[in-house]
Amino acid sequence: MAEAGDTARSLRKENPKSERIKAVEGELKKISDAKNWPKMVITIPGKARDIRILPRGNWQDDSGPIVDPAIPGFLGSLQVKGRATRLDLAKWIVSGDNPLTSRVFVNRLWKLLFGRGLSQTLDDLGAQGQWPTHPELLDWLAVEFIESGWNVRHMVKLLVMTDVYRRSSTPTADQRKLDPENRYFARQARWRLEAELVRDNALAVSGLLSRKSGGPSVRPYQPANYWFRLYKDANYNQDHGENLYRRGLYTYWRRSFWHPSLRAFDAPAREECVAERPRSNTPQQSLVLLNDPTFVEAARVFAAR
Predict the structure, then answer these.
(1) 67 lies in some domain
(2) Domain extent at residue 132
């Protein structure tokens, strides 16, 4: 159906009076009216298929030995009945016998609220990672997270109500001398906001931020013809009203079309997992704050309050 629509549009550009256009559009209408398009469904096979090692990577050669799903031997083994599945792996990852998952999560949560993790190597809490500054605290938080039923809201509330979170970020003379980098969290930290939070903070201060949760992605302001200059047939249909001021979490983003304002503040391209975002200082960041309609609107509304 999409191909028929593309053909009709291309023919209309060449010859608006072409009879073939009518034929293609008629075909498109028949497909739309039929409403019997194939649907994607999930089926559960009765018997798991054999998985073989592919000789020289040839998927048509089934002479290789059969292998079963498993985890690396140094991590132990999956206690399952029969053949292991991805569900067994998921259960093992979040089981009470595996404290690593909860340790990694609470360390990243601490980083979000304090600017740096208890261990600075967010993606490596193993033997080659940096030893945490407060190992007992990290262990306690990991156990608390598991015993709370993996309740993220509980952990956030627990951390933001602590004395260390509510301390001033202005260092005393002794703190500046004994711990200038604040590695031991004697005070609250100061750190650069991430790309989405730069935008959200400006909207929140102005009172424009929409706190609506859930729903599909939204398309806020972005430079005119930004998509068109990259791909002639790509159209960016900007949203209106409340959707222009939703949190950056909901911004529509394609890997081939990065949102320019977010990318200017070092938002990752989402082609791979990034535990620690880079931080840069560029002229583009100042230009975004001066010219992006989102920040212009936020400044105008804030000035009128």
Answers:
(1) no
(2) 99-178
Q: How far apart are CA 256 and CA 162, in angstroms?
A: 42
**CA 81 centroid distance within chain:** 35
Dig out the tokens for 252 from the structure: 């529509």
82 φ/ψ sector (left φ>0, alpha ψ -120 to 50, else beta): left
Higher-pLDDT residue of 7 and 226 is 226
Q: Is there a single domain that holds both residue 199 and residue 300?
A: yes
pLDDT tens digit string along 177-197? 999 988 899 999 888 889 999
CA of 71: how far to CAs of 90, 125, 128, in Å? 11, 18, 20
Higher pLDDT, 251 or 41: 251
Q: Where are the alpha helices (DSSP H) in 49-172?
A: 86-93, 99-114, 135-147, 152-160
- Count up the domains in the chain and report the number: 3
**In whole angstroms, what is the distance from residue 232 CA to residue 13 CA?**
13
Answer whether residue 122 is part of any domain.
yes
Per residue in 69-94, pLDDT (tens digit) is 888 887 777 777 777 788 888 888 88
